[in-house]
Amino acid sequence: MSSYKTAQVAAIIGIHPNTVRFYEKMELLPEIPRTKSGYRIFSDRHLTQLRFLRTAFRAEIISDGLRHEVFEIVKIAAVNDIARAYQATLQYLDHLREEKERAEEAIRITSDIIDKKDVAGKVCIYKGRSIVAQILGITTDVLRDWERNGLIEVPRDANGYKVFTENEIARLKIIRTLRNAHYSMMAILRMLNRLDQGEQNIREVIDTPYEGEDIISAADRYLTALNLAEMDAQEMLRMLSAM
What we know:
Blueprint: H1 6-13, H2 17-25, H3 44-56, H4 64-78, H5 82-114, E1 124-127, H6 129-136, H7 140-148, E2 163-165, H8 166-180, H9 185-197, H10 199-202, H11 215-242
Antiparallel strand pairs: 1-2
Helix pairs in contact: 1-2, 3-4, 3-11, 4-5, 5-8, 5-11, 6-7, 8-11
GO molecular function, one term: DNA binding
Coiled coil: 86-113
Pfam family, one: MerR
């Protein structure tokens, strides 16, 4: 079995030696034996794990929840529980596809609003934040934060309960997708304001190319990232099968 020093491993993978040490500190690599002098001794298994984690972390724009899943998969593989890592990757792949469906839904909703279609009605379908947060897969604190930052205004009924109609649910789905794509509150507010003002304004280029883009472009960018992440996940499955 071949053995390697830290600098050799770093050169083979194309990263800095300090990055290798960081991965070790984060428990993303199998245990690394040392010489009597304290030098790390890497094997081909470590190289395989490094290639695996570099593939796993390649996706740039995915939600924090998905990124956490990837982190846990790499840690599981690091302790050689390959079967569990494989199952966790399958689950991660399912979650990526679910997130893609949500992003595509946000694009459809936005397109319908731009095209002046009757996307949603004013009929009350939910009362209170808890059930709405559960449906959207977020916490009530996140929902309150979106309200505080002016992303959405939710009316109340005569008894003071928050009333969520189909209009509010549609808007919240758009916000969820943009937040998962790591857009700032201010950027989302600008995009939503442009959506509210109509097609001509929403498609107009404003301040900066990234934070000033329209909702459809933003969701498209996120979809592209999710598609790339899905390809990486499939590659992860192939790599795990070969371990």
